[in-house]
Design brief:
The chain has 307 residues and is an alpha/beta fold. The protein contains eleven helices and twelve strands.
Length: 307
């Protein structure tokens, strides 16, 4: 059975006017079109709804039983429609997005301020948590989406690459390469030219650190055990304090690092990794997400020029 709200509204128009012609005028369709619609309704219900005469249209017993049902259906749909529309509008104007803490500190302030200027009616809710927790919140539906480096596919989660990022070498003003070159660090640095000193690193089990270690090994670059941490913001803080150099994603480097941190893009090879947006599979994409993604990518491009 495939009866629509339009069928029920047309049926009630005929009931109230007792005329196919006047009912057709009321609901703004042709009289033949209304007749075909009523014939379709009778065919789907397997009963006659109307007794037609030359002067008026009356109801059969089956048609009389359908009247209260049709009125209830139309009334309930017309009552709930504005509520659903308001919810939809609210969803379009709100975006709940999860980001890892380092991204929240380095990139999201610029994105947030830009969105306030360009889309003042949009409310951006930012949740800064580690990636496993963000992934769980996306799966549960508590977040519209999340951003981060998600190298593995996850059931029931859609993963979309947003942009690629490079790995960069960072060291403090007292770092080994700046000391060797009188305070200067080239903008590009080969993996083979990394200093043979202990580095500040992520925990060896971290996906990003495993990618870094693979590249070191492929380039026959020796590594010496240094300090291991669980968060990128801690790695950058330690490097800036002079504990040791570090290898981090380009998006994680704070802007305005000035003399505190020297940065060089690692080359030969350039290791580009994907930064993703994830959503729960089957979830409707919020309208606001497109505006957010456009703003985010613009900010990323500007950061690349400044680092």
């Amino acid at each position: 059975m495939n009866l629509s709200i339009r069928h029920f509204k047309a049926f009630l128009a005929v009931v109230e006017t007792r005329s196919m012609t006047r009912a057709a005028e009321r609901i703004h369709i042709s009289q033949p079109g209304l007749s075909l619609m009523m014939q379709d309704m009778e065919a789907q219900l397997s009963c006659r709804l109307f007794e037609r005469t030359t002067r008026s249209v009356g109801l059969t017993p089956a048609g009389q039983k359908l009247v209260p049902v049709a009125r209830q259906v139309v009334d309930e749909i017309e009552t709930i429609a504005p509520v659903l529309s308001q919810l939809s509008e609210s969803r379009r104007m709100h975006l709940r997005i999860g980001v890892p803490p380092i991204f929240s500190a380095s990139v999201m302030p610029l994105v947030y301020m830009r969105m306030q200027q360009t889309h003042p009616a949009l409310t951006l809710h930012i949740v800064d948590l580690p990636l496993p927790e963000l992934e769980a919140l996306v799966r549960s539906g508590e977040l519209d989406c999340a951003l981060g480096v998600f190298p593995k596919r996850v059931p029931n989660v859609l993963r979309r690459p947003l942009f690629d990022f490079d790995l960069v070498y960072v060291e403090a003003r007292t770092g080994p390469l700046r000391a060797r070159s009188r305070g200067r660090l080239p903008k590009r640095l080969r993996w083979q030219d990394l200093p043979d000193v202990p580095f500040v690193e992520l925990h060896p089990a971290a996906d990003l650190q495993q990618q870094i270690d693979k590249c070191r090994a492929a380039c026959n670059v020796a590594r010496r055990d240094g300090i291991h941490l669980h968060r990128l913001e801690s790695v950058i803080g330690m490097a800036a304090a002079g504990v040791g150099p570090a290898i981090v994603p380009s998006f994680a480097v704070p802007l305005g690092h000035g003399a505190q941190l020297a940065v060089a893009t690692l080359t030969d090879p350039v290791l580009s990794l994907a930064f993703h947006l994830i959503m729960k599979r089957g979830r409707e994409q919020p309208t606001a997400l497109e505006a957010f993604s456009t703003t985010l990518l613009a900010v990323i491009d500007e950061r690349r020029e400044r680092i």
